[in-house]
Amino acid sequence: MSIRVAVLGSGSSGNCTFLATSRARILVDAGFSYREITRRLASIGERPESIQAVLITHEHTDHISGLGRLAKQLRIPVYISALTRAGLPPNTELPAVETIEPGKRYQIEDLVVEPFTIPHDALDPVAFRFSAEGLRVAVATDLGYLPENVKDHLRGCHCMVVESNHDLEMLRNGPYPWYVKQRVMARTGHLSNAALGDFLRQEFDGEAQVMVLAHLSEQNNHPQIARMEAASALEQRAASHLKLVVSSQSEPTEVFQF
Question: Which of 35, 112, 155, 196 gives the lowest tally of CB atoms within 10 Å of its CB?
């Protein structure tokens, strides 16, 4: 038994993550066009026809822009909360829906799916923890801070895809209007490099073998800055064994296998 994970792309223009076990193949979010998702799947050696489900974190465009076409083309179920589904564009047709609730568990073949609530300015935003044969993966982006329930779901994970959205100084001095800066920095906004660093420095349990920094702002962050902040925190936590990867908006990460 193994779990394979690849972030197909992550950022303000689109988000999609691939996860597979020996029997299950799923996507988290569909924030690129169907054509782009299939292209990125092909680049990691996967066929779109093999995907069995897509799970949606929230209704913002960078997470659902390709959802309707993807679900219709592949005839696969969409795992989505009732409120998030209600927030989709009116013309979004979903051939099959599995309604999910935070705090409950769902089974897709040999994969256990646990959605959990996150603080973000959406109708019913969730992140996910996945388990199969004792292996655990968390995908948690688009959250203004790390409350205890999120930290609990990150603990014990072998792979973490976690937000490192912005550098605070770059955001404060950047071109965004002040109200947008306030939204990003709010407790229902996006996680800063510094906030993630504080968690890693103070509360990271050291279990993860791979950590993928995701949803980096193109305007208010830089891959090297995000990496340095996280790497410094991990070094102070004596977690230098961990593989630290910065995801990209434009191309997939490598495929990580556990």
Answer: 35
